[in-house]
Design a protein that fits this description.
Elements lengths: L1 H15 L5 E5 L11 E7 L17 E7 L2 E7 L10 H14 L3 E10 L9 E9 L27 H14 L4 E7 L8 H9 L4 E3 L3 H9 L3 E11 L10 H25 L1
Parallel strand pairs: 1-4, 1-5, 5-9, 6-7, 7-8
Antiparallel strand pairs: 2-3, 3-4, 5-8, 6-9
Helix pairs in contact: 1-2, 2-5, 3-6
The structure holds hypoxanthine.
């Protein structure tokens, strides 16, 4: 994997000469952040050596290189999900690449189902911790010390400093934010009512199918991480309304302008 990462960054540096400070993974319905970037280079995933090959026909995915208020950013437009069939090593490969392009701070976004009764659809949640319930661990196997240590400290996966700065900025922008614990499941099914109850009993506030592996790998490489989630549906054991993908995308899109504004401010002012 070390050699693969080196080959990939060599290719990217040759093509772009770009040295980003921030990495950002654009989740469901939040892809519009690309419009806030002054894009200098775009590399479709299928042109990048060693990048996972998309399983979905016509699935667009690209690395975008650009600036936001002068800050250099590399953005993943489209991420790789475990449920699509990728291994955890593949899901997290782009994070490895980002690190060796120079990224120190990673911003991760997603859509999730809320189980905290004080949440509502459209809420923006700053993730302050996670519970990993995914069936495969991205760090399983022989450890390569050049990436990071065998045993990774996870006492602060999400930067408290970034969270508190984001809260200040949100207040100034008049954007309401909540905070919470994200639980990662493999999907692709949405949760049964009993599973939503399980998520709640386990101590999480929201549940989704991404983010956890990328954050683990970012911490393995000692990156500072900021995670943000849009509540797109409520997993409520007394509410038998079914969740569907369309509804999730719609709710994420409605919250998108606020999330974009907040992330932009954070990148510029942190
Ligand atoms: N469950 C899991 N993943 C999700 C959900 C959900 O309710 N909403 C958006 N992503």
């Amino acid at each position: 994997m070390w050699e693969q990462v080196q080959e990939t960054i060599k290719f990217i540096i040759n093509k772009t000469g770009f040295k980003p400070e921030y990495g950002i993974i654009l989740g469901s319905g939040l892809g519009g952040f690309a419009e806030d970037l002054e894009i200098e280079h775009m590399l479709p995933y299928n042109e990048i050596p060693n990048f996972p090959v998309s399983t979905v026909e016509g699935h667009k995915g690209a690395l975008l290189f650009g600036t936001v208020g002068g800050k250099k950013v590399v953005a993943m437009q489209g991420r790789f999900h475990y449920y699509e069939g990728y291994s955890m090593k593949e899901v997290t490969f782009p994070v490895r690449v980002m690190k060796f392009l120079g990224v120190q701070k990673l911003v991760v976004s997603n859509a999730s189902g809320g189980v905290n009764p004080f949440y509502k659809v459209g809420d923006i949640v700053l993730i302050y911790d996670h519970i990993n319930m995914m069936p495969e661990h991205p760090l399983r196997g022989k450890n390569d010390e050049r990436f990071g240590p065998r045993f990774v400290n996870m006492s602060e996966p999400y930067s408290r400093k970034m969270i508190s700065r984001a809260k200040e900025l949100a207040l100034n922008l008049n954007i309401e934010v909540k905070d919470g614990i994200y639980l990662g499941l493999q999907g692709p099914t949405f949760e049964t009512l009993s599973e939503y109850r399980m998520v709640k009993v386990l101590g999480a506030d929201c549940v989704g199918m991404s983010t956890v592996p990328e954050v683990i790998v970012a911490k393995h490489m000692d990156m500072e991480v900021f995670g943000i989630s849009v509540i797109t549906d409520m997993g409520d054991e007394d509410n038998i309304d079914e969740v569907n993908h369309q509804e999730v995308l719609q709710a994420a899109q409605n919250a998108e302008p606020k999330v974009r504004e907040l992330i932009k401010e954070l990148i510029i002012k942190y």
